[in-house]
Specification:
heterodimer; A: alpha+beta; Cytochrome Bc1 Complex, Chain A, domain 1; 7-stranded mixed β-sheet; 5-stranded mixed β-sheet; 21 helices; 12 strands; globular; B: alpha+beta; outer membrane lipoprotein receptor (LolB), chain A; 19 helices; 34% helix
Chain lengths: 518, 711
């Protein structure tokens, strides 16, 4: 559905969402591939135009005239990691509000609507004041709630429902969606190539003049999203506990969707403050990929997006997760079947060792030759799935490498833990084979090429690397780094990372198994 | 120029300029004029047929040095036998993992991984597939393996065993995910749980599948004249044709197998269905009835209707149920169409428990609204524009076009189907949409399924209509206990032991027992804690039980009658799930007093199962089966029963296991010997130890106890 949260387990499995990010491409070696077409950085670069506006907004335009369509991808360098207690969930909430229209879209009369929206704000403020009193007056609360609800209904009269999305639907947009993660908020869709100007108009309006109408109704929708993804999913519940335990200080400990209490409390003004702080042009990168000509479209981009005023650089996250010194453990006794996960702290994606962690994850998890598959699934038959994931819950800040396994019936978390640990121990003690290392490198090259087959995939990868590293070319340089990964690198990183004091274990224990065991 | 004039000029200029960005420079979206779409020739695949009947589609795509091959095979899980559900799916998995006559499965894994290539196979409801994806330079080598997998899979037994573990894991976990429960159960309701469209794998059906079944299935369906092959990527057509001929040309044609029509329920199963699940925090609601077939000419107006009802941001469902009422994050409503059988109309959402019936009514209102209020011209235009303006995305990649063309060929649609589609969508009028809504939407025939915690619903579902509880407990594997050995000799030996039991326990007078009342104190152990439990159980033979329990949280009465079972908690009646009632009936068939009352019933099936010591006492084991309920008895030399075991569900957790009751401290009550101590274990773990406080033979029974309370 719309406005998906990129979080929780699906994220673990969906790294291919950013196909190129995962693919760690190496281009130089591809020059030798048949057909004579080179797929190196320089050939890619001839089709890519980087354009920066005076207000700091960066565009990456990639010309791919395969079909008369174009994909747009706006990457804002803000995520749940920018939240503090009390406003958790706000980055995601703003993402929802970015579909609610502007001063000109979604309203029958903004001037009049504005008066009522202010009234809603005042009514909510009064209610909020009362609610957080030491001894709230129940009667007064009821009355204030009524006033607030009535103001919302009044505001409803001016609303043209979902006009923003409707315009795009009608004009033939596909894949209209957005996502919020710990590190980033992304907005994307594709249009027929002749409607680029419609996108330029809507996307600039959306971030220039957003109106947070229906804020409190949408807050209800987000609460339902929390109930659906976290509270009603055993693995969702476990992951929330895992990050809360693995991180004791850094905001990665907070759920992207937010705590229920915060969702029930934050206000439209909180969201607006958040927007003003982080949605400044210098904090955004936009990719346009498809049937376009950079020279022709730059004037259009200038015309629409230059209207956004430059703003101060958003404040950094100051807190650094302290070094973990004791092993931590979460056991969740649940109706569900068992599930095992363990995580180890590791550096941010910008650290030179990132390629080594990527190589380790690939070696352990990718396909039927992966070490975890062969050991836990094929040979020991104690798990149906076993995998490693190199960056959770985000990669911008120091994060966790996560291993997980899904036990088969009759096998326990302890069984899979033992087998997982044996594989981790192998990484620490035995050099990987030449064949395995070569396989990882070959696979990286191939998946780069595969990633180049989709406008949306290219756009997502370009913006991600531009934001994270300040240069989209890092997408290609990451390849050189993985090509250089050696057996010694893997031993070194495994020995320093995979130690008990750096570990957090989280597991679902089936309640019946508990009652049997006792 | 004087200062004044200059100032004036500056002001007017800037104010003029100030207007410019909003009115002239940046238009309202309605004022935007779009250039025409760049000229674009839709690429068409080259299509030809091999002499063995295999249809081939070639689509050149030189952008990247990659080649993909896709084969579609006329087969499907709809055609597998009912007692082997899962056969087609397992064949589809083991075809790839089980290797070929030339290469073991693990070797293929290494071979492909070294080339960053992939080959995957699978079988769905109405078609099978095989796909490969490789770098152009590796095509020849990978294609040879692909062909072997398609034509000569080895189906290694060990890989079948591995796939079965995975299938059994899915069964064990199928109730962990609420949306999986909802979509599975609603299909079972509407199509019928025996229909190939809805039936599910069970431990028993997986167990029944053998390697021979896989081999036979492959032999029957995997023939070149049942295959459509597509190749897309960086190749020369003539060269590719040669390679295909060389690798697949000698594959021998086989005789055509006609696939039977797929059976399903045709009558509506309207009503409310509830599945209790208390480890979630949202009611998961789906309502459904039969939809239409894909080749129905009304398919096109139905697409427009779907767009208006539940497609995208401006749809009625999204606007009203999500945005206006804030009832759900995800809400949907679509009339489905399938090839060869009707799809499902499905609508639903997930909402907090406190909004359950409100949300059901909100969704129903939108469905009814589709019939009551025909689409406005604006809605019609939006829906058409949305489909037609995005039409170019049907052609935005060559592999997508190839897949479409193969799909049209597979289902017998013309190659220009997509062009016809566009024309047919353009033709749809508001009246057509209204007509199909009235014809195919039946709000009164919906099966409404709600998964959630009933105690927290805003109102009971029963206020909306008749409610049926569904039991989704997972049937245990068929071979969960030691096999019962049978022979004439064992029967004779068993009879002998049984008669010693009858004699020791009370003799002829046992037949006269009509009811018993037992007051007992138990200690229940679960989750590392123990709980005291006092019960008074009255059994009226043959099939009535009344159980009054005193628990720390209050008194609870459970009544089981011949056909029905209910509980009385704090003066409130609630029906017991059918599965529990069923279990209790089975229990009645194993109840020792029940068996003894019927000791000479000819249908009582007894056989000796050898000897075993119980706590140092040599016991004879007999298997006893009566009215479908089986158990084993360990009989002490004095004829008393020391132990009874059977396969059943843990009464607390409902997990299947071996239940064991150890009897001791026998005392005489009238003509009957009664064990005053009874300890229950499940799979060897202690569950409950019980001491009888008092025992009454033929107590006073109030007939009102067994009268089902009316609401």
């Amino acid at each position: 559905m719309r406005n998906q949260l990129r979080v929780y387990l699906p994220t673990i499995w969906s790294r291919s969402h950013h196909g190129l990010r995962a693919s760690m491409p190496i281009l130089v070696l591809l020059l030798g591939l048949g057909g004579g077409r080179a797929f190196d950085l320089s050939s890619f670069e001839t089709r890519l135009t980087e354009h920066r506006l005076a207000n700091g907004l960066t565009f990456l335009i990639y010309e791919r005239p395969e079909a008369p369509v174009v994909s747009f991808y706006t990457h804002v360098d803000v995520g749940a990691a920018q939240e503090v207690p009390g406003i958790t969930g706000l980055a995601h909430m703003f993402e929802h509000m970015a579909f609610k229209g502007t001063t000109r879209i979604g309203t029958t009369n903004f001037a009049e609507e504005k008066i009522i929206l202010d009234k809603v704000d005042r009514a909510y403020h009064a209610l909020y004041q009362e609610r957080f009193k030491t001894k709230p007056d129940t009667e007064r609360l009821k009355a204030l709630e009524k006033t607030w609800k009535e103001a919302q209904e009044e505001a409803d009269r001016f609303i043209v429902k979902n006009e923003f999305g409707e315009i795009l639907d009608r004009e033939g947009a596909v894949g209209l969606n957005a996502g919020t993660g710990s590190d980033s908020t992304v907005y994307f869709y594709s249009l027929p190539a002749n409607k680029l100007e419609l996108w330029a108009y809507l996307e600039s309006e959306r971030f220039l003049n957003p109106v947070f109408r229906e804020f409190y109704k949408e807050r209800d929708v987000v609460m339902e999203e929390r109930r659906m993804r976290t509270e009603s999913q055993p693995i969702g519940r476990l992951i929330e506990q895992f990050v809360a335990t693995a991180f004791t200080a850094h905001p990665y400990q907070q759920p992207v969707v937010g705590y229920m209490s915060d969702l029930m409390s934050f206000s439209r003004e909180d969201a607006e403050r958040f927007y003003r702080t982080y949605y400044v042009p210098g904090n955004m990168v936009i990719a346009v990929v498809g049937h376009v000509n950079a020279k022709e479209i730059i004037p259009i981009l200038e015309k629409y997006f230059s209207r956004m005023p430059a703003g101060p650089t958003p404040p950094p996250v100051r807190t650094i997760e302290p070094k973990q010194t004791v092993e931590r453990m979460v056991t969740m006794i649940d109706r569900s079947q068992p599930f095992y996960l363990e995580g180890y702290h590791k550096p941010a994606a910008t650290h030179p060792d990132e390629a080594i962690y990527d190589a380790i994850a690939d070696l352990l998890s990718n396909g039927r030759t992966a070490r975890l598959y062969r050991s836990l699934v094929r040979d020991k038959k104690i798990a149906v799935q076993a995998s490693a994931f190199p960056g959770f819950p985000g990669t911008k800040y120091p994060n966790c490498m996560v291993f997980y396994a899904v036990p088969t019936p009759g096998h326990t978390n302890e069984d899979v833990q033992k087998a997982l640990r044996a594989e981790i121990e192998r990484l620490r003690t035995e050099p990987v084979s030449d064949d395995e290392l070569q396989m990882v490198k070959t696979r990286a090259k191939a998946s780069l090429i595969r990633g180049l087959a989709s406008n949306n995939g290219i756009a997502g990868a370009l913006t991600e690397y531009q934001v994270r590293f300040g240069d989209w070319r890092e997408l290609f340089r990451a390849v050189e780094r993985i090509e250089k990964v050696s057996k010694e690198d893997i031993l070194r990183v495994a020995q320093s990372t995979f130690v008990p004091s750096n570990r957090t274990v989280a597991m679902i224990v089936n309640e019946d198994a508990v009652s049997k065991a006792n | 120029m004087n200062t004044k004039l200059s100032l004036l000029l500056t002001v007017s200029l800037s104010s003029w300029l100030g207007i410019l960005p909003s009115s002239a420079q940046v238009a309202d979206h309605r004022d935007l004029a779009y250039p025409s779409l760049p000229k674009f020739e839709i690429p068409k695949p080259e299509v030809y047929t091999l002499s063995n009947g295999m249809e081939v589609f070639l689509m050149q795509d030189r952008e990247l040095p990659l080649i993909q091959v896709i084969a579609r095979v006329k087969t499907g899980s709809y055609y597998e036998p009912a007692d082997k559900v899962g056969l087609a799916s397992l064949m589809g998995i083991v075809q790839r993992t089980g290797g070929t006559l030339r290469m073991a499965g693990d070797e293929i894994d290494d071979f492909l991984a070294a080339r960053a290539a992939s080959i995957e196979t699978g079988i769905g409801g109405d078609s099978g597939s095989a796909r490969m994806d490789c770098l152009k330079q590796d095509f020849d080598a990978v294609f040879a393996v692909f062909s072997d997998i398609l034509r000569k899979p080895a189906f290694a037994q060990e890989k079948l065993d591995l796939a079965k573990i995975s299938a059994n894991t899915s069964i064990a976990r199928r109730n962990d995910n609420v949306s999986q429960i909802t979509s599975r159960e609603v299909q079972r309701l509407v199509y019928g749980s025996d229909s190939p469209l809805a039936r599910i794998t069970e431990y028993a059906t997986i167990k029944a599948i053998t390697r021979d079944d896989l081999v036979n299935w492959h032999h029957r369906f995997y023939l070149p004249n049942r295959v459509i092959l597509g190749v897309v990527g960086d190749f020369e057509a003539a060269d590719m044709k040669r390679k295909i001929e060389a690798v697949l040309g000698d594959w021998q044609k086989g005789s055509a197998v006609d696939l039977p029509p797929v059976e399903h329920l045709a009558t509506p199963v309207s009503g409310y269905y509830h599945i209790e699940k208390d480890d979630i925090n949202q009611a998961n609601i789906t309502m459904a009835h039969l939809g239409i077939e894909r080749k129905n000419p009304d398919f096109f107006p139905v697409q427009i209707m779907n767009e208006i009802l539940g497609g995208g941001f401006a749809s009625r469902m999204f606007s009203n149920v999500r945005s206006r009422q804030g009832l759900a994050y995800s809400v949907y409503g679509q009339l489905g169409a399938e090839f060869g059988h009707p799809g499902l109309f499905r609508a639903g959402l997930q909402t907090q428990f406190g909004n359950t019936t409100k949300a059901i009514q909100a969704v129903k209102a939108e469905i009814q609204g589709m019939i009551a209020s025909p689409p406005t011209e604006a809605e019609l235009k939006r829906a058409k524009d949305s489909i037609l303006n995005s039409f170019v995305f049907n052609y935005d990649s060559k592999s997508k076009i190839l897949a479409q063309q193969m799909s049209y060929a597979y289902y017998g649609l013309p190659a220009d189907y997509l062009d016809q589609y566009r024309g047919n969508i353009e033709k749809v009028a508001a009246a057509d949409v209204h007509r199909v809504a009235s014809k195919y939407l039946h709000p009164d025939q919906l099966a409404v399924l709600v998964v959630g915690k009933a105690a927290e619903f805003d109102r009971p579902l029963s206020e909306l209509g008749n409610v049926k509880s569904l039991d989704i407990s997972i049937p245990p594997p068929p071979d969960a206990g030691p096999k019962i050995e049978k022979s004439a000799l064992r029967a004779e030996e068993g009879r002998r032991v049984w008669s010693s039991v009858v004699k020791a326990m009370g003799g002829d007078e046992l037949k006269e027992i009509s009811a018993v009342e037992v007051t007992m104190n138990s200690e229940l152990k679960m989750g590392g804690q123990s709980m005291a439990l006092k019960q008074v159980v009255t059994v009226v033979f043959p099939d009535q039980i009344r159980q009054v329990m005193s628990l720390p949280m209050g008194e609870q009465t459970v009544v089981i009658d011949a056909d029905e079972a209910w509980a009385l908690v704090n003066g409130q009646h609630q029906p017991l799930p059918p599965a529990i009632a069923q279990e209790q009936k089975q229990e009645m068939g194993r109840n020792l007093v029940q068996l003894l009352r019927n000791y000479d019933d000819p249908s009582l099936d007894i056989s000796s199962q050898g000897k075993e010591n119980v706590e140092g006492v040599a016991c004879e084991i007999i298997a006893v089966a009566w009215k479908g309920a089986e158990s084993r008895l360990w009989v002490a030399p004095d004829g008393t029963v020391s132990k009874q075991t059977y396969k059943g569900n843990n009464p607390v957790t409902r997990v299947p296991g071996t239940i064991e009751i150890a009897f001791s401290d026998y005392r005489l009550e009238g003509s009957l010997r009664v064990a005053y101590k009874q300890n229950r274990r499940v799979d060897g773990q202690e569950l409950m130890s019980t001491t009888i406080e008092s025992f009454k033979l033929d107590p006073k029974v109030d007939p009102a106890w067994f009268k089902k309370p009316t609401e």
